Amino acid sequence: MSTVEEWVSAPARIAGPDEGVSIDELRLAARNHGLPLEALRYDVTPAGLHYLLTHYDIPAIDPAGWRLTVSGAVTRPLSLGLDELRARPRVTHRVTLECAGNGRARLSPRPVSQPWLDEAVGTAEWTGTPLAGLLAEAGVTAGAVDVAFTGADRGFERGVEQTYQRGLPLAEALRDDVLLADEMNGLPLPPQHGAPVRLIVPGWYGMAQVKWLVGVEVLESEFDGFQNVTAYRLKQSADEPGEPVTRMLPKALLQPPGVPDFQSRVRVVDRGVVELTGRAWSGWAPVESVEVSTDDGGSWRPAELGPQPAPYAWRPWRCEWTAIPGRYELRVRARDGAGHEQPVDQAWNRQGMANNHAQGVTVVVR
Amino acid sequence: MSTVEEWVSAPARIAGPDEGVSIDELRLAARNHGLPLEALRYDVTPAGLHYLLTHYDIPAIDPAGWRLTVSGAVTRPLSLGLDELRARPRVTHRVTLECAGNGRARLSPRPVSQPWLDEAVGTAEWTGTPLAGLLAEAGVTAGAVDVAFTGADRGFERGVEQTYQRGLPLAEALRDDVLLADEMNGLPLPPQHGAPVRLIVPGWYGMAQVKWLVGVEVLESEFDGFQNVTAYRLKQSADEPGEPVTRMLPKALLQPPGVPDFQSRVRVVDRGVVELTGRAWSGWAPVESVEVSTDDGGSWRPAELGPQPAPYAWRPWRCEWTAIPGRYELRVRARDGAGHEQPVDQAWNRQGMANNHAQGVTVVVR
């Protein structure tokens, strides 16, 4: 690194055993907000309650001047303005998005980065045109392997200056539910969700959902940019390459019952029959079961599942609990149709990615 | 406290000298988000980027069933539905709101509560009906002193179960710019900003802007509820009553120039002439000057002020900086027409309220 990179970027590190959250991590937490857990009540998350993770700054883009290029291994490169994109076939998909780093701050030891607890998730109705149609129009060549997506957001990360870019395997990019979205919940994308146009790859963690999209490049070799090769890897040590983070592992969240304490967020619930509700999702297959524990994972009971509203949208669940006075640690866990089940205790990885340990909610019954 | 209160609420405390941010504070930071500082570019903050502080949970209110009561020391108590409220005279005010705890996490030692750094602010266009008209209709009696506002949000705080309530001196409540707002930036209030109706008291810190408003009660004695008498007090020790927190002290914020590092948020700027821009506000009087330091407060130069868009909305400012390579700590400070000036170093108070030390932004010029 030159002096500039050393001044701005620290190497990746793991917090010490008793090290509190640092001001750097807190600054990220103040910028990048989660879903307040009571907002699990909404089938579709209202704008402003959906989680957000912005790597650099939210860019200022004039929609009138915005253009998207489709280039690389194609026979007819394209350059489209927003009106041209919006004139193409339009579809709407309800999709749950979760940050790949969700749960990171619960790991021990804690990887120092965006310090999510449980809340980096949201579900929206995304409207736009299928990417596959655009790629067909451009004519993908026979040797194509990956598609690289470039955003308009720029900054440094671990000493590397970059514009946000992610690669996606061609087979995923050609799925008919992968969208170039310009509307969220029926309105133009808000600035923080990628205005004017973002990528939506249902089922994948948030890093694939490139915001402020300006470039789509078809590649004849695997994309080797920072966000695929260095970041978003599942690994135990700094020097191994690790495995890529891709689809969301199953997770259930409980809408915390009763009323909270301001500071501790511990919940107070009146004795009697309490309805416990929440949502569960997986990027691998529909959720097939949700289980609830009222004794911190000692025993589990099945929850009743509501209908699956869309292949990659969270599924509602509910169960009843006859609460008697005392202090409880509620836990919930989901299993999907591909056989993935949430662990009660989290396996550790060095970047704190794809954590799906069972959420805990402390409740005092009176 | 009974067992229930002891289980849910910890006493107020001050962090130890080297104590990192706790998981409790982090949980609040993940829920209650700030304005990403690049959003200082917008005259009016888009919904979802405006700061939020929710004491308990965002309540679920059906607007069709919502009613507001006006009661207490009035000759004609009122009960109004949303349509009736919206049929009254409507005005729109552009107002900057800031959390009274903004800057708390920069205090040393740090009061343990919502750990804001610099970003708990936003400016919106609030539309609704003046409170004064409703109070005139209800007929405030001669002995009235305070008006108490009750929200629909409920929880515990420091061992005290409560519905969020704040009192406001009658003279403030009768100002013609105090609103019962049901729209933000031209749309119905989002759930997190108090839907369907909230109070707006221009110039005051956020605790006065009661969300999810359901009750207005005129009192013939001073309101003595928790949020006025226990919370939101300026004091040095636990056992003194302290002074109430009221209006916003002046503050300037700089829109961080250049591009950021993901983790440290240090900015990288290219050498040459750099335009520095930002916003400044005060709840006491219009901002009269903004000054910028590029040497961490050693020397200051005046910024050029843009027009004041409304009495209690932030005012834009700009200045040019000829940046030569090196590392800099930029600071900005404002002074208002009432003679309040931002300090470079923050005075300390036990609850971490009304902090307005000059923001610092670390910049590396290359």
Automatic annotation (TrEMBL), chains A, B:
<dbReference type="InterPro" id="IPR000572">
    <property type="entry name" value="OxRdtase_Mopterin-bd_dom"/>
</dbReference>
<dbReference type="InterPro" id="IPR014756">
    <property type="entry name" value="Ig_E-set"/>
</dbReference>
<dbReference type="GO" id="GO:0043546">
    <property type="term" value="F:molybdopterin cofactor binding"/>
</dbReference>
<dbReference type="GO" id="GO:0008482">
    <property type="term" value="F:sulfite oxidase activity"/>
</dbReference>
<dbReference type="GO" id="GO:0030151">
    <property type="term" value="F:molybdenum ion binding"/>
</dbReference>
<feature type="domain" description="Moybdenum cofactor oxidoreductase dimerisation">
    <location>
        <begin position="263"/>
        <end position="357"/>
    </location>
</feature>
<dbReference type="GO" id="GO:0006790">
    <property type="term" value="P:sulfur compound metabolic process"/>
</dbReference>
<dbReference type="InterPro" id="IPR008335">
    <property type="entry name" value="Mopterin_OxRdtase_euk"/>
</dbReference>
<dbReference type="Pfam" id="PF03404">
    <property type="entry name" value="Mo-co_dimer"/>
</dbReference>
<keyword id="KW-0560">Oxidoreductase</keyword>
<dbReference type="GO" id="GO:0020037">
    <property type="term" value="F:heme binding"/>
</dbReference>
<protein>
    <submittedName>
        <fullName>Sulfite oxidase</fullName>
    </submittedName>
</protein>
<keyword id="KW-0500">Molybdenum</keyword>
<feature type="domain" description="Oxidoreductase molybdopterin-binding">
    <location>
        <begin position="55"/>
        <end position="226"/>
    </location>
</feature>
<keyword id="KW-0479">Metal-binding</keyword>
<dbReference type="InterPro" id="IPR036374">
    <property type="entry name" value="OxRdtase_Mopterin-bd_sf"/>
</dbReference>
<dbReference type="InterPro" id="IPR005066">
    <property type="entry name" value="MoCF_OxRdtse_dimer"/>
</dbReference>
<dbReference type="Pfam" id="PF00174">
    <property type="entry name" value="Oxidored_molyb"/>
</dbReference>
